[in-house]
Amino acid sequence: MQTELAPHLSQTPEGITAQKILNKCVHCGFCTATCPTYQLLGDELDGPRGRIYLIKQMAEGRPATEKTRLHLDRCLTCRNCESTCPSGVDYGHLIDIGRHWAEQQTQRPMGELWLRKLLAYGLTNKPLFDTGMSIGRLVRPLLPKVLKKKIPQGRPAGKKPMPGQHAERVLMLEGCVQPGMLPNINHATARVLDRLGVDALLATKAGCCGAIKFHLNEQEAALAEMKRNIDAWWPYITGEHPDCKGQAVDALIMNASGCGVTVKEYGHILKDDPIYRDKAAKVSSICMDLVEYLPRHTDALKNLLKNSPAERLVFHPPCTLQHGQKIKGGLEQFFSNLNIKVSLCQDSHLCCGSAGTYSILQADLSEQLREQKLNHLLNACHNNQASKIVSANIGCITHLQNDQKPVEHWIEHLDILIEQNNGYVSHS
User: Fold this and answer.
1) pTM surpassing 0.85?
2) What CA–CA distance (Å, rounded) separates 97 from 17?
């Protein structure tokens, strides 16, 4: 799809990147078959091909309208279309550029604008969010159902091991909402790693990965968060931080696939920054999802689980894992090696509707997708006699909570199995 950039975009990094991506599209339409919003709405402009045309029009100088912005807003950024596309169109990066252009050229209603600001700066303010979540749990029984769903109960966090005991070390991002919403995910991760002889180090000055602000078009603020994280992590990556004892960390691990896909793209996002581009590329190169890292310790885990009975689970692979990070089948194979049978549900490639803040900003579409996904997951649990649903991203986990089957992070389940088989005494 040849694109002639408008003069005011022809020398800009965004314009040049968009042109390269647009030129790859051959208008084949394969992407529409796997687009959740196109399947729901049946509108060409609510599918990847239609949105690409809208972005092409802006790239060539046609002004964006409120309708342009609406169709771009409705995109889940699930990137399923990238997995389907035979031409390798980098849709995820293109939609970010298109949204930025549309935001610059149109004016949102004041209420919508303030809601997006509240989400961008409220969710990423850890002290504020944690306090709000604590208050929400106290009054949860009194809240309407729609708000109750946003305050998951989850497992008690349990004891977290103190680092400093092991020669192998990794750096871990706590995340902005995860410690307040479901703190046991991070604690379970640290406990499992501790049992495997790995210290999980935390950089106290690191915070939100930048995804929330970036996808809400608060891009300057998002870039500032990314640079802050790089600065916080860098002494660990070089081995200069005292906790490293002179040895660089082995990896930067993520137990939230939504954070992982963003951090893995720091190198792309900051490629034009002369100060941070090399450091950003290094950060992205050592970033690993937890399911990429733990298979290194499969033999040790087998030993820890040698008395464990056969398990059956249903796995919901987040879009940020299977389409964003291109990790497909990793958990299934890993758990199979541990004698844990993992099944997928029908249409497992489709988004559950969570998609960061999408469940708030596009609540109706999100709820339709949730119901479809949950029906398929529950059917898969029934057909495979599975005890629970596991996933790999906090957004999906909280979005899919229901009264029939528990939904939790797979690392929490692994943590429980190890404890049941071995008991656990923390290094503290």
Assistant:
1) yes
2) 9
Query: Which of 48, 74, 105 finishes a domain?
Result: 105
* Residue 110 resides in a domain: no
Name residues of the chain where pLDDT drops below 70: 146, 423-428
Query: For position 336, which CATH number holds?
Result: 3.40.50.1860
Q: Which residue has the tokens 């999408």?
A: 358
Which own/partner pairs from 178-182 qualify as long-range (CB within 8 Å, at least 24 positions apart)?
178/255, 178/256, 178/394, 179/126, 179/130, 180/126, 180/129, 180/130, 180/132, 180/133, 180/134, 181/133, 181/151, 181/152, 181/154, 181/394, 181/398, 182/152, 182/154, 182/155, 182/394, 182/397, 182/398, 182/409
212-263 per-position pLDDT tens digit: 999 999 999 999 999 999 999 999 999 999 999 899 999 999 999 999 999 9
- CA 244/CA 171 separation, integer angstroms: 10
| Sign of the four-CA dihedral 142, 145, 147, 152 | positive
**End position of a domain, from candidates 293, 317, 345:** 293
Q: CA-to-CA distance for 243 and 194, rounded, in angstroms?
A: 15
Interval 327-379: pLDDT, tens = 999 999 999 999 999 999 999 999 999 999 999 999 999 999 999 999 999 99
| pLDDT value of residue 117 | 94
The domain total for the chain is 3
Clarify whether residues 313 and 408 are in a common domain: yes
Same domain, residue pair 325 and 247: no
